[in-house]
Amino acid sequence: MQSQTPEAGGAKATTPTFQPGDEVTFVISRGSRRSMRFSVRHAKVVQLEGDHAVVQYRNHQCIRVRLTHLTLASGPNALTRALVGEASV
Predict the structure, then answer these.
(1) Is 78 helix (H, G, I), strand (E, B) or coil?
(2) Region Disordered: which residues (predicted)?
(3) Position 49 in a domain
(4) Distance of alpha carbon 58 from alpha carbon 74, whole angstroms
(5) Is 38 a member of any domain?
(6) For the chain, which terminal residue's Cβ has fewer other Cβ atoms within 10 angstroms, N or C?
(7) For 14-68, what is each residue's pLDDT tens digit?
């Protein structure tokens, strides 16, 4: 038996380029034995460090977040895309 694999599209996934001062969102997940909580945080990029960014949110709290976990605040965030879908947004 010979298996056939469908042709993949020509579009490639890209990570948007971020600059210091950009307004971004990211998802924080917290879990316990019985449940998981996901929440979206709005932040501002302070500094870029390779594949991470230092973002400032809340009361000037700064943390490091992977660039792949960040989305621009002007677009749908990762939690919205996961719940609603990419085409509906």
Answers:
(1) helix
(2) 1-21
(3) yes
(4) 19
(5) yes
(6) N
(7) 666 899 999 999 988 899 999 999 888 999 999 999 999 999 988 889 999 999 9
